[in-house]
Amino acid sequence: MKKIRVGIFGFGKTGKVIANEFLNDSQFALTWVVRKGYADHHKYASRLLGYEFDAGKIFSIEDVDNDFFRERPVDALVDFSDSSGVYLYKKAAEAGISIVSAISKYEQEEIDLIKSLAKYNRVLYSPNITLGINVLMVAAQILQKIAPHADIEIVEEHFKGKREVSGTAKRIANLLGLNEEEHLNSIRVGGIVGRHEIIFGMPNQTIRLQHESINRAAFGQGAIFAVKCLIGQPPGLYTMETIIAEMFRQNIPVY
């Protein structure tokens, strides 16, 4: 079986975990990694992560010229760097490379650029690419339609050093049409990686939808799921939510 070739943008704390997840999956071949600066230039991500084989040759962002993607072909580009990477995607998209972006925040100009690339290639953009949180968001929207009069509160818990309100929690509030100041509750304590809970209060019963990130590897598993879902799909703009919502639709049990 032919392996799916992947290139990664970003080799910081999260990028290294994502690279490790792809290296551990037998269906994938990590071809290269692009990072800022020249640290570990032309070394292999696999060696730096403790493996005894060469995979994921490291390049600087300065190496990404007009010929980079043609000379180093991959099936998918996974971005865990920052918003500036989007300006290098055009050549990748033109080369037929699927794009998976897990950047937490883009400016409108950058979002417009992503949309333009989706006109002729497969582009998936999800600020939080973990599978669980996207299942939670789809389930919450379904439950809200089933119980439109329920009281809803969102609780987000993160490590003590996280100052800003969770972007994922804000997105949940937006999807459910809730005022952030009134219905979003933040807790900062200990070493929690990240936990989101949506509470639906109804007469005589309460329903709680909860997702907790235990390890950054969850982002890598989400990226793997995203790449697999894009293979064979027509050009267009995809999100984890739309993919999961379609899976919900296809797998609703019929009694």
Secondary-structure map with pairings?
Elements: E1 4-9, H1 13-24, E2 28-35, H2 45-48, E3 57-60, H3 68-71, E4 76-79, H4 89-94, E5 98-101, H5 108-117, E6 122-125, H6 131-146, E7 151-158, H7 167-175, H8 180-183, E8 184-188, E9 194-202, E10 205-213, H9 217-230, E11 236-238, H10 240-250
Parallel strand pairs: 1-2, 1-4, 2-3, 4-5, 5-6, 6-11, 7-8
Antiparallel strand pairs: 7-9, 9-10
Helix pairs in contact: 1-9, 6-10
EC number: 1.17.1.8
Catalytic activity: (S)-2,3,4,5-tetrahydrodipicolinate + NAD(+) + H2O = (2S,4S)-4-hydroxy-2,3,4,5-tetrahydrodipicolinate + NADH + H(+); (S)-2,3,4,5-tetrahydrodipicolinate + NADP(+) + H2O = (2S,4S)-4-hydroxy-2,3,4,5-tetrahydrodipicolinate + NADPH + H(+)
Protein name: 4-hydroxy-tetrahydrodipicolinate reductase
What does this structure look like?
There is one protein chain. With 255 residues, the protein is an alpha/beta fold. It folds into two domains: 4-125 and 217-250, NAD(P)-binding Rossmann-like Domain (Rossmann fold); 131-213, 2-Layer Sandwich (Dihydrodipicolinate Reductase, domain 2), CATH 3.30.360.10. It has ten helices and eleven strands. It has helices spanning 13-24, 45-48, 68-71, 89-94, 108-117, 131-146, 167-175, 180-183, 217-230, 240-250, and strands at residues 4-9, 28-35, 57-60, 76-79, 98-101, 122-125, 151-158, 184-188, 194-202, 205-213, 236-238. Strand 5, helix 5 (108-117) and strand 6 (122-125) form a beta-alpha-beta unit. Helix 1 packs across helix 9 (217-230) and helix 6 packs across helix 10 (240-250). The radius of gyration is 19 Å and the shape is globular. It starts with a strand and ends in a 5-residue tail after the last helix. Belongs to the DapB family. Residues 4-128 form the Dihydrodipicolinate reductase N-terminal domain. Pathway: Amino-acid biosynthesis; L-lysine biosynthesis via DAP pathway; (S)-tetrahydrodipicolinate from L-aspartate: step 4/4.
